[in-house]
Amino acid sequence: MQSQDVAPRPRPASAAAPGPVVDIEQAEAALVEHYPRLVRLAYLVLPPSLGRNRRVLTAHALTQRTLPRGRASGDSAVLPAQKTAADGRAEDPGYAYVRLRVLRTALEAGRPLTFRAWPTRAQLPPLLPQVWGLRLFPRSGGADELALDQRLSALSAPARAAFVLRGLERMADADVRGVLAAAGAQDPAAALAEADAVGTAEGADALLTSPEFDPCSLQARPTDLMRRRQHFKAAVAAAAAVAVCGALLGMPGDGWGPDGAAAPPYARNPAAQAALDPGKLTLVPAAAWESSARTDFSVWPARGALTGDKALLRRALAVWARPGGSVQVSATPGTPSGAPPGPPQLLYAGVVDQSRVVLLYDGLRIARYAEAKDGGTRGAALDFARVDGASGADADALVLGRTDGNVRYLTAPWVRTAVVRDLLKSAAATPGATGTSSGTTPLARSADGVTEPFASPALQSGACRSWNVLELTDKAGTRLSTDLGELTPARLTSGRPGRPGDASAADWAPLACSLADARGQGVRSVNSWSYARQALPDGSGTAEWLCTRADTWRGGGPRVLAQFHAPGQRFGAVAAKAENASACGAKDPHVLAGVLWKSVKGDWYLLAAGGKGTASIRATGGVSGAARSNLLAVRAEQGAKAELEGTLSSGREIGGLR
């Protein structure tokens, strides 16, 4: 903020008549003579939250900026003179003027920054004075000074000013009110009342004049030397980079020109520019998939009632390239969220529930843009999902939207029928049951392939009482997939790792609720495998050991669960689980897991099982035992903990899943 002119502010009704004119020479003389006192006044009024170093520099900066730029009017008339001053300040209108200016700017510096108004110069860090490499602060005082500083820090800026004027300037309350009003305080009376809570000014006078509050008697210490060295090295490197870039840009013929080798790689990249043009979107004909050898997103036609809405498509592309702060951006793990490398393919543009939705595909990712149907881009959402290598069943459906616990899909053009199946009801259905009694409900679709909404398991909370999956049928067969909170549903398969096949509801009915562990992980497919069957030691039946593995689109981060399904139980119990494990996968199909089991008679056993390639199992720790097969049953105590080790037929050692 520039130094203010000396035009007088509105005065209270009780103000005296205008005082004498203060010229710049008179103000400068008062400033030089009383400089330590004025700096102390500014230091005490400034908020302690600035820190002692910045508070010292700001106090000096504010005081040095109090000189008028020209001749000044009698602002000193509203500043009652000190009645007890013995150093000539009482009769000096120049001192009254610069004191008012110091107080006014110190109060401005204490106001918080807001977005509604530009900051004043007093609210910003001082440009001058500056001391590089040193931190300056007043000499430390005693316990009384520290206690007073803590009490002052709890006051508002006008209240601190009132307290300091009482104690340091020895002013009466009526005079303090006049000074605060002239300095711009909103409620001087309230400031005085707040200052009363600290104590009497007479008792604090000696403390206010102590070295603790003297910004002219300073100690110096170095700043953080290691950080300063790092910043210096970074500045040198940045300066060198700028110099090199400037030299390259300035070279004739090879600089920043239409054919220059140093042309900006994005700003002048034709493909990147074309990616923002809705007129250059890739639009696949409706029947292209019928003659194509591929069954992936690249042969999906552009569908929806708004595929010709250029304004909507332009907004979607612009938000994809440069999402603003109000846009909610999400991406599945391992999915980049940058702009498309070229014009993407349009899959869908239309109204879904209360939103306008655009689905785009760039060969690597699906991008879903959604905005309110009546609210424009405010609160727009941009979601990304990785789909590289998607083909066949992986490209059967995409999520269009989720509302009120329901999900709505856009199905592939080759899908013939769609059914919603509740796996938990399928588990309870009697053999041969059909229709809703077996947990299936036909799912209606529009001509564009948009399904009706149905309850999504990805949005349910609390106990697992249902688990809906999407059952899609085309000429290749019937496949199950489930919503796990991504743009692409996760495909459900069953079979030995490396050779899984399409799963049935019976395969997944006892395992459905365990799918909740894979929500929000960017899962591509989940495979279930019954890797062992074990006769229970009490003769009560045969238990089944199952392994489920959730593989992701990014390849890493798979989740593996081993489950124990005892006879007579509707659902399996999780025996062990692991993340980033190779077990139960195509590269390493072997798995070993154990569980403590209580027999009908009340006896406890450690049961363990490995795949068919497991030659022996050993248990150590809280339970000891061994078996020369892929099954182990050993008596144990309730709550016992054991370590499992197995040996494969090849001689390789494996550990228990954990």
Morphology: elongated
β-sheet strand percentage: 25-35%
Q: Helicity range of the residues? A: 10-25%
* Major sheet size, sense and barrel closure: 10 strands, mixed
Distance between the termini: 65 Å
Q: What is the C-alpha radius of gyration, as a whole number of Å?
A: 39 Å
Treating each run of at least 4 consecutive H or I residues as one helix, how many helices? 15
Q: Ranges with pLDDT <50 over ≥5 residues?
A: 1-18, 72-86, 250-267, 429-437
Strand tally: 27
The overall pLDDT, averaged over residues, is: 84
Q: Structural class of the helix and strand makeup?
A: alpha+beta
Secondary structure layout plus pairing:
Blueprint: H1 24-33, H2 35-45, H3 52-64, H4 93-109, E1 134-138, H5 143-153, H6 157-167, H7 173-183, H8 188-196, H9 201-208, E2 218-222, H10 225-250, H11 270-274, H12 288-291, H13 310-321, E3 328-331, E4 345-352, E5 355-361, E6 365-372, E7 376-386, E8 397-403, E9 406-411, E10 417-422, H14 423-428, E11 440-442, E12 454-455, E13 468-474, E14 477-482, E15 490-494, E16 501-502, H15 505-508, E17 523-535, E18 542-552, E19 559-565, E20 573-579, E21 592-598, E22 604-610, E23 614-621, E24 625-627, E25 631-635, E26 642-648, E27 653-655
